[in-house]
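Ticket #138: bound-state structure for zinc ion.
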Amino acid sequence: MSNAEGRGSVVVGEPNSAILGHELGHAENLEDASYYKTFLGAARSVANIANSLAIPAALAIRLLMDDAKSRNQVLNLMTGITAAANAPVLTEELGATLNALKRSDNKLEDLKTLGPAFLSHVASSALPIASFQMARLI
Ligand SMILES: [Zn+2]
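RESOLUTION: The complex was predicted; output attached.
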């Protein structure tokens, strides 16, 4: 999980210890890593744009580009950009989740909270990739 800014900052007043552990896991990963922080911030921005524009962009490409071959090349390029931007974001989320589980006193219980949260990150990353690929088929 992350805040709207996507910088992995600690959520103050968060009642759930698993989620707090996850946020601390981000802080741990990002400590003294300004290059990584900048890179991850950029990847998050690209991923957020790609994820929110994927469906309209895929439809626009489908409607505006008549030539099937170039259209499919553009859709594949968009798929690649989206996947490349989402990969470091998912890696960071997984890292924060694993950090939280490592220090957890109740790993199974915390996994029940953090597992679905991580899967929702995976799902939101998979949606734009699926959109660009489905636009090739319709
Ligand atoms: Zn997170």
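RESOLUTION NOTES: Residues 70 and 123 are 28 Å apart (CA to CA).
TICKET STATUS: resolved
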